[in-house]
Amino acid sequence: MRLLAIDHGNRWFGLALSDPMQLIARPLEVVEGEEGVIQRIGELIVEEGIVELVVGLPLNMDGTAGPKAAQVREFIKKLENQFQLPVHEWDERLSSFEAETYLREGGLKGHQIKEKVDMVAAQILLQGFLDSRKREDS
């Protein structure tokens, strides 16, 4: 019973997966295009036993929702209709910046960071979601 997180980008979608106990998130992969990511999510639901989806919602720094958040909410509706699973929005402010920082500190450079930043951002937002659930349960 795993959760899958999606970092919605204009072209690239980062994916991260929880462990079966839903305690730890790990980066999984990057998929190109909305059609490609929807297909891949369907495969992962079957292969990995995904029971819930978490989608990063790009809010403005003041917490308001702008045009990009509206686009992501349309994507969330597609996921809900396609897969009939719970889909959670999660505030992803600064997740890409944080991911870039981690990758840079890990010694990666330029194109290596660009290739991995979306899936690491998905890992960061999924870990935040998992941690918030642990706090709610305690």
Secondary-structure map with pairings?
Elements: E1 2-7, E2 12-18, E3 25-32, H1 34-48, E4 50-57, H2 67-83, E5 87-91, H3 95-105, H4 110-137
Write up this protein.
The protein has helices at 34-48, 67-83, 95-105, 110-137, and strands spanning 2-7, 12-18, 25-32, 50-57, 87-91. By secondary structure, it is an alpha/beta fold. The protein has a single domain, classed as YqgF/RNase H-like domain (Nucleotidyltransferase, domain 5), CATH 3.30.420. The longest helix has 28 residues, at 110-137. The model has no long low-confidence stretch (mean pLDDT 89).
List its traits.
5 strands, five-stranded mixed β-sheet, 51% helix, Nucleotidyltransferase, domain 5, alpha/beta, 138 residues
